Amino acid sequence: MWPFSxxxxxxxxxxxxxxQVTEGLDGTGLTAIVTGASSGIGTETTRVLALRGVHVIMGxxxxxxxxxxxxxxxxxxxxxxxxxxxxDLSSMDxxxxxxxxxxxxxxxxxxxxNNAGIMACPFKLSADKIELQFATNHIGHFLLTNLLLDTMKxxxxxxxxxxxxxxxxxxxxxxxxxxxxxxxxxxxxxxxRAWGAYGQSKLANILHANxxxxxxxxxxxxxxxxxxxxxAITTNLFRHTPINGIINVIGRLVFKNVPxxxxxxxxxxxxxxxxxxxGKYFSDSNVxxxxxxxxxxxxxxxxxxxxxxxxx
Length: 312
Hints:
This protein has helices at 18-21, 40-51, 63-76, 92-104, 132-159, 194-218, 244-254, 258-261, 263-270, 297-311, and strands at residues 31-35, 55-60, 82-86, 111-114, 163-168, 223-229, 281-283, 286-288. The chain is globular, with a radius of gyration of 18 Å. The protein is built from 10 helices and 8 strands. An 8-stranded mixed sheet has the order 3-2-1-4-5-6-7-8, with helices on both faces.
């Protein structure tokens, strides 16, 4: 990534790293959940939050990989507090078990980072018979957030600290189907387009954060909900695409590296500049503008009701 990117109002830019945007911040006493923490920006988000004193619970499918991540972090930061719980976001049963296991631990929850995702994969249905990208990227996180919300509210009340919910979306929400969310064609194989479905799931991440923010504000709860674009990053998200090899070759020149890719997530999760800011979309550690569909309040409400039915 070009090292001379222009800084935005926050003082940060596309070339800022996760360590740079959290420099001098103390997260001691905070507890965070990071989904998809065993690789890519999820791992770097976990490492940097732990570096700043946050107790991080990794929600991961691969517990062996999570063990390796934890060991690597502890070698660098011996005082780091990092734990892992199994979580497969494409399965509602797995999401429910993760939430139950976390609640049984008695830990508080200040920060929830909905980071895990799959991208542009061939058509497939989840264990719950929902198109896999929509199931993993949106429905799993929607359910997880709802199941953990009471714990977050309790933590916020008792600690008098703002809770933060962070949805990792993507600029690929611009590639969503023309109608945004295909409520009546979620599982339609004949009209499935891998990138359209990915864009749809990433648009859902933005709409979810927006509607959640509205509801939290209405309830008078001190918890924010925001979404973000991490940047184009060379991670294993590209594994299902035919351009995987090309991405790895040219990626070092035009894409962000992983420390830069995790920056906006860490900024929105921890930085005092974001205190009280909710229902916004961020890119390069600055407030950005999604598509008109991404700010459609009626579409967000419709998606909320649709998601609620799917998860009941």
